[in-house]
UniProtKB/TrEMBL annotation:
This is Succinate-semialdehyde dehydrogenase. Pathway: Amino-acid degradation; 4-aminobutanoate degradation. Homotetramer. It comes from Punica granatum (Pomegranate). SUPFAM superfamilies: ALDH-like. GO terms for biological process: gamma-aminobutyric acid catabolic process. GO terms for cellular component: mitochondrial matrix. Its EC number is 1.2.1.24. It is found in: Mitochondrion matrix.
Length: 493
């Protein structure tokens, strides 16, 4: 596909925007500064977007604060209808949004279109949940009193999102926030602001009022600090690195904000001797190589029982060998580029560390001949728990295989990390699937399945992988406050 033609078409559709959105108006940075947005597959500049800081963020906060007053007063049915309209528009523009994702993020177009559906589903789901924010009536211990619990929106929300899912990480935050009456300032990653801006344009078209959804981008720490400092911002919701998440958590204490964090994982994928090998290979492949390994639920350690190890390693390597690498717009491509040079260097240094400590390359192990940030889909064997690649997220297309003997050992290895987001197990033993799931210190567990994210289930981590849950009926609680109401003097006439 000709990138220039595509860019021109997206511009004329109104979905390729190069300005930020504050109070319903498309604007530049106040000092005119911009940042370039690149196509990671080609290095070409797609467009430039405003490089904003605290001033613009403070204005976005004010507009969000003003909009909160009226948006939160709308009936749940009205908010629901706007969200449903937004969902319909996201789906109607699925192709253009998918193209934007591939352009700025690099994932293959079919995967990008899959993200649009997945991302839009959060808006649909929360358009329905908007109508089900029920309170409670508590049996009173005193005859003359009636006790009630109301659920009310927390207020203005700052939503800081990463580059690996340019749409879905936004909709899973903004969907529940808007559904219950909150208003939002989105700070997308500077690597992938275009999908966020297109989604915001569609939110305006859906009749979501000016100020209810704002998008600012630029100097991340200045924007973050402004959101943290403002007493008008009542909640921060963040998906990204553990290091930045910890900073935000500390910063939120000054104004005692509510906070939700989706941070890094270190997902174990345990393959037992009694697994169905085809199911395990397919599941591990999906769990590891989705988005070229750049998700926080990607299998980071494939822990295989000794009886099936050689057979699995062989079948898995063959499957990985079939993954076509290339520009996400090319037919049949399953693996796009890594997001940038820093990501490539990280992958290289982790592989180097593993090889220097005794790991062996079964497949790949180096940069791809396509150049730029393409890396060969890689399988390493003889990986040990103390290697860097087992300790931290590699965030790239490298599958390290570790060996274990007993179930207890596998659980110990899997839990030997500060992370606790996703885990996967492959076994045909029903009792074992329960036993191991209960023993794993993780927020999500896939049993005989490698792709487990859905808008209807709670997504989130334990330990240092985060706080709170996104998606599902539980996800809306993160945006609500409980208010207890005591009605006295209820026995009088
Ligand atoms: P990644 O390594 O996946 O890019 P980051 O945590 O660096 O993860 O980025 C996730 C999001 O957090 C991005 O939108 C980024 O711009 C933003 N971010 C980075 N540093 C800060 C900060 N100090 N304050 C607020 N947001 C930040």
């Amino acid at each position: 596909m000709d990138a220039q033609n595509l860019t021109a078409r997206l511009k004329s559709s109104g979905l390729l925007r190069s300005q930020a959105l504050i109070g319903g108006k498309w604007i530049d940075a106040y000092d005119g500064k911009t940042i370039k947005v690149h196509n990671p597959a080609t290095g070409e500049v797609i467009t430039e977007v405003p490089c904003m800081g605290s001033k613009e963020t403070n204005d976005a906060i004010s507009s969000s604060y003003d909009a909160f007053y009226s948006w939160s007063k709308r009936t749940a049915a009205e908010r629901s209808r706007h969200l449903r309209k937004w969902y319909d528009l996201l789906i109607a523009h699925r192709e253009e949004l998918g193209q934007l994702i591939t352009l700025e993020q690099g994932k293959p177009l079919t995967e990008a279109m899959g993200e649009v559906t997945y991302g839009a589903n959060f808006i649909e789901f929360f358009s329905e949940e908007a109508k089900r924010v029920y309170g409670d009536i508590i049996p009173s211990p005193l005859a003359d009193r009636r006790l009630l619990v109301l659920k009310q929106p927390v207020g203005v929300v700052g939503a800081i999102t990463p580059w690996n899912f340019p749409l879905a990480m936004i909709t899973r935050k903004v969907g529940p926030a808007l559904a219950c009456g909150c208003t939002v300032i989105i700070k997308p990653s500077e690597f992938t602001p275009l999908t966020a801006l297109a989604a915001a344009e569609l939110a305006l078209q859906a009749g979501i009022p000016p100020g209810a959804v704002n998008v600012v981008m630029g100097n991340a720490s200045d924007i973050g600090d402004a959101l943290l400092a403002s007493p008008q911002v009542r909640k921060i919701t963040f998906t990204g690195s553990t290091a930045v998440g910890k900073k935000l958590m500390a910063g939120a204490s000054a104004t005692v904000k509510k906070i939700s964090l989706e941070l890094g994982g270190n997902a174990p994928c345990i393959v037992f001797d009694d697994a169905d090998i085809d199911v395990a290979v397919k599941g591990a492949l999906g769990a590891k190589f989705r988005n070229s390994g750049q998700t926080c639920v990607c299998a980071n350690r494939i822990i295989v029982q000794e009886g099936i190890y050689e057979k699995f390693a062989d079948a898995f390597s063959k499957a990985v060998q079939n993954l076509k690498v290339g520009d996400g717009f090319s037919e049949g491509v399953a693996q796009g580029p890594l997001i940038n040079e820093a990501a490539l260097h990280k992958v290289e240094s982790f592989v180097q560390d593993a090889l220097s400590k005794g790991a062996k390359v079964l497949l790949g192990g180096k940069r791809h001949s396509l150049g730029r940030t393409f890396y060969e889909p890689t399988v390493l064997s003889d990986v040990k728990s103390e290697m860097l690649i087992s300790r931290e997220e590699v965030f790239g297309p490298v599958a390290p295989l570790l060996r274990f003997k007993t179930e207890e050992e596998a659980i110990r290895m899997a839990n030997d990390t500060n992370a606790g987001l996703a885990a996967y197990i492959f076994t045909n033993n029903v009792q074992r699937s329960w036993r191991v799931t209960e023993a794993l210190e993780y927020g999500l567990v896939g049993v005989n399945e490698g792709l487990i994210s859905t808008e209807v289930a709670p997504f989130g981590g334990i330990k240092q992988s985060g706080l709170g849950r996104e998606g599902s009926k539980y996800g809306i609680d993160e945006y609500l406050e409980l208010k207890y109401m005591c009605l006295g003097n209820m026995t009088g006439n």
